[in-house]
Amino acid sequence: MKLTEIRSILESMTFPEEIPIDSITGTLKSHFFHKYSSAGASKLPVIAMYSLYQLMMKGSTRYRNKTLKSLGGCHQSDKESSLIS
Length: 85
What we know:
Elements (H helix, E strand, L loop, with lengths): L2 H10 L8 H13 L10 H15 L27
């Protein structure tokens, strides 16, 4: 599945108004430490964090009138892209 397809799915989803923090942290731990065997699994933590930021922005007056930038493409590792030296 391409990142644009995942983004489209995420943007069309509706989220409950309140999610218990224990539920969030448990789900993220399970998600991040699962041994995925398919390509593209390294994108999943980025997508999860992006989704959390979307939720936090909706629920906070601090971020009113602010826009979260769209996720960029991820075609190479951070090391290859010189983000990490």
